[in-house]
Structures are given as C-alpha cells and as structure tokens.
Input
Amino acid sequence: MSGRTFGEVSRNLTALAILAAALLAAAPRAGAVPSFARQTGMACEACHTVYPELTHFGRVFKANGYILTNVKQVRDVTGKKEELLSLAQTVPLSIMAQISYTQMKTSVPDLSSAGAPGVAQNGTAGFPQQLSLFYAGKIAPNFGAFFQLTYANDSGTIGIDNTDLRFADTTLLSNNSPLTYGISLNNNPTVQDLWNTTPAWGYPFSGSNANVSPLAGTAIDGAFAQDVAGITGYLFWNESLYAEFGGYRSAKQGQTNALTGGAGPLDGTASNVMSGLAPYGRVAYEYNVDRHSIEAGLYGAQFRLYPGAGAPLRGPLNRFNDVAEDVQYQFVGDEHQVTIAGTHIHESMTLDASFANGGAANPKDNLSTTRVWATYYYRRKIGGTVGYFSTTGSTDTSLYPATVSPPPAGGQPGVVVSANGSPDTRGWIAEVNYLPWLNVKISAQYTAYSKFNGSGTNYDGLGRSASDNNTLYLLLWFAY
Amino acid sequence: MRNCETNTDRPDRRLGAACVNAVLVLLATAVLESGSPVARAEEPDAADKLHAQKVAITVCGTCHGPQGNSTQPKFPRLAGQNANYLAAQLKAFRSQTRGDPDAISYMWGMAAELDDDTIASLAPYYAAQKPEAGRGGDAAAIARGREIYDHGIAAEGVPACSSCHGPDAHGTQDFPRLAGQHAQYVLKQLASFQSNMRKVAIMHGVAQNLRLPEMQAVAAFLEAQP
Output
C-alpha cells in the first residue's frame, strides 16, 4: 500500500470489497465433523443426508447448541443436583482435509515478465487445498461450540475459520410443545443458520480456490466471513418455526492499531470497518411429514461500512441492505435422498462513500444473486448435484472496472475485470460424488459460465469469453 | 423346538400345527432381545416423571414425535407402547444387543448413557401417551394382512401374530404393541428378524418363512389398526 495515495486506494475500495466478497464466497465451505458423531454415538446419517447438508435432526442438534451427548462425562454436582461441570471423557476434536485438482478451460495470462507475457500453467494441485482442525461439541451443560482452524494453500497460513459458539436450552410450553432458545456468538453471518440454503453452508459446499471468481457478490454472501463478531438470539418453536435477531461488528484478524500496536481499537488503516452494529435477522418455517421436510424463510442484514484503508473512520458510509428468501425440500429415505433448494438475495447499495471518492459511478446500485440446486444420492453412496447460479445488477463502471488498478507489471491482463461495467454472471454447476465411507467423499465438479462479469464473449475487452473460465474441480474430502 | 427349526429349514417349508404350538410355547420363554431380563420398572416419582417428559419431548421427540406419535416412518411410534417392552428395548440398545441397522446408527448412541432411572421413567411416559390412528392402505393387502395376523400361514409354519400381540395388536406387558405402527418400520423389523441382525429367536422363527408380499400385507394391516 505504501507509495499509493489514500485517494487512489479508496477509489476502488468498494470494488475490492466486493471482489473480496466474491472470492470468499467461492472459498471452500466445509463442515463435516465426526466429533459430533463420537459425542452423540450416532452415525453421520442422523444429522446429515450427506455431509455437510443437515437433516431435520441435525438442525435440531445445532439449535440445541451441539450439546446432545451420549458419552461418559466427568461431572460435578451440588447437593441440589445442580450441574456445575459436565466434561466429556472424549475430547470432541476432528480433522478434515480437502485435496483437490483444478483445471480451467483456458488458463490465465502469466504476468511474471512484463516484457514477454505468457500463460500460467493450467492444472492446479491443492495438496491440501484445506486442512482443518475442529473443536466441535459440548463445552458445558448448555454451552457448545463449533470451532474451526484452517490451513489453506492460497494463504499458506493457519487461520480462524467458521466459528459458532452457542448457549441453548429447551423448555416445554403449557401445551407441551418444545421451545428452544439460544444465543450464538459467531464470526460469519449465516454460519449459525440451520438450513443449507443460506450462504455460509449453501451449495456448492466446496469449490476451487484456483480458478477465476466473478467480481460481484452480495455482502451477506460471505463478504464478512471470519471478519466480524456477531451475537444473535434465536427461538425455535416446536422444531418448526425459527426466528433470530442479532448484530455484527467488525472483528479483524491480523489488524493492529497504528498508534498502539495493539489488536485495537480499529483505526483508518483497516478497511471496510462496520459502523456500529450490523443488524441481522432470520425467520423460517419448516414442516416435516413422513420422510419429507419443507422449509421456507427470509433472512437479511444491513451493513454500514467506513471505507477506511487510509481514510479516517468518519464521513459518508457505504450501506448494503440485503434481503433474501430461501426454500428447501428434502426427502430423506433409506435408499434415496433428494434435496431441492435455493435462495435469492437482493442487495440495495447506497454508496455514499464510494460515490464521493470515485470508487462507484452511481450513488445507488442493486445486485441480486440467485442459486438453485437439486441433489440426489443413492444410499448415501453415490450421487450428484446440478445447480444454476445467476448474479445480476446495476452497471457501474467504477464498481466493476474495466482495468485493474494499479496496472500490474505485465500490463492489463483482463480476466478479473468487466469491460462493460456489468456484474452479471451466470452459469451451471454439476458434480458427481462417491462416498466409499460416510466420512470420505470423492467429487468431480464442473462449473460452466454462460456470462461472466457482464458478457458471454469478450467480457474483459481482451477477447476472453465467459466459458474460458469453466472449471473442472476434482476433490478428495475426508474428515475424521 | 428342534423339530421346528429343522422343518423351517426345509425347502418346502411345510410346518404342521404341532410346530405352531411349539412356537407358541417358546413365546413364554424367549421374548426379549438376546435374553435381556424383563425389567419391571420401578414407579418413578414426580421429579423423574417431569425429567422423562422433558427428555422425551426435547430429545427423543425430534425423531419419535413429542408424544411418541412419530410422523416419520423411519422412526417407530412409541405412543401407547407397552412399558416393559420399551424398557427392555432401551436396555438392549444400551448393551448393544439389538442390532438392526437403525438401532446401530441411532439408538446405540442415544441409549449409551441412559441410566436405569431414566429408562424406568421414559417407558411409562410413552405407555401413557395416546396413540394416534395409523394410516390406512390398500384394502386387499390389509385383508390379507389381517388373515395372516389372525391365523398365521400354517403351510409356511408362520404362527398367528395375534397369539402374542393380541387380537387387537395392542400387545401385552412384554409383547410390543403393533397397532398403528408405521408399515415401513414393521417391514424393516421383520427383515431384520429374518436376517437375524435383530436377534430374537422367536421372531426369527416367525419371520424366516415370510415372503415379502406377506410381510407387506401384515405391515399394512398393522398400520391401519387403531
């Protein structure tokens, strides 16, 4: 960042934020945790159709704070049978690995030499793409945790990943219907959600981190994953009606105060700092009958951001109002498992800060993302998913720029830009999966783009087609 | 008993009434899973009852329904089930002696740390719940099922189910209630008795000669019973 003026930096802040959102949204989302199976004594199929997708039982287990346990405990109780301590004799630890191989239809330019630009090697082995350690299970009688540390090959470091700490309890109402109530402390809006329709645990459950990601993504779609701290309270009545409300605040990793060198307070050296609390809300209703489960819901959040990154944390803000609908149908049989699910996220942006500093061409923009998918498994052994995704929104030549700023050493490479300033991206994704055992998954996934960053052909102004970004992704994913 | 086993192994599966009677004699001695002793539940006190109610609704209820009237056929209906049978099953899960696939996947874990007091409270909780009416099905299958249930299939050495489970399929203290039970669950249990994954000598003897359409008919009949 040194050598660049604050103005240069801030102009593209929003674009960078949204690019980051897209990258994060494309990053692997992984949460298969055998420590839950060890704790409950139940096989994966109790909570998952095939991991990480949850069944009704899995949703209830999560809402109850991951505390259901069927293993021997170290206990301490008072004379009035008040439980002071309940420690599992088996520590709920798990490890998870993702080993992958990515092949793009057309590789990207190699910018290593300004004089003679070549083509980057096509075919990327991720070994591992991701390696995670989980603490996932009960901590105390009404307190449980899903805590993930991840090594990722793109950063080459170990960092905090999805985290959801819960206090929860259940009471019986006068009509004997159960009411579960709880509080979640988490670091990613929707990571605490119970359905696999919302972004943190939505499809695709894993994707390549060695391909090209589109420029645009809504804020709630992973933009602030592991970058915020949230506290939400929820009610889950009769295992069917769910309501949740809470707020998020910036909780940067690796950020220090310029004056004190401490982990805070956040100052203008940090980027995209939330102003106050970002409210988050969720309602959903689930109906279960026979082997069918149907859910419909709404979720949303409002994020108000200071651009920061060299600009003081005051003045105009960028506001992202996200409202989303989601639906899910599951058939969970012994032989057949079927899921049809989808979500539609609508985002209204009021970009006072970016418009003022030239980072956005319009004071207001809209962005919508739609994802729908259908999954089938036979005996939880072999199956596949077909999905459609689409992001459309306002054309904004500053938000979705035609050139990379500052220009890289090898000249303008295209690929990660939009020649016409449109964020529109859509395509299909298909994958086949084979699980020799319930905690080992082998996948082949193909993503095909019909439109990328605004166009099907020559989307970057340098002749690259959307389909050049089509990606074949092979994955070995296991957890223990 | 020996003769019956020999006869039922024959390809022609002809079994006379004598063996049906012998099977019935067996019922008196070989009832529970893998020889688990019958546990006569102690009368739970009020606190135990409250605890059992909460466990039943908030834990067991996720699969079995809050009052034991499960809507998912994978999970058996427990409302109105006989307490002694339920207690014996929970102990069989706990000791991992009941080995049908769903027992292994779900109930071995769920029951692993159940103490005797909780079992003694849970069983009467479910026994006291009002069973909801099961679903009706194909009339012809139900009629065939009733025939098998009431009279067995003498030619195949299958005794009348009613001789143990009662004329109304409500069971007895030690024999389970089957009326209103999910047909898919009954079918899976019969298959598990047949394959001996769920090892109950008497039910293995009963089920091993049953053919799939006959099991389906009995299951359809049972689900339709009030």
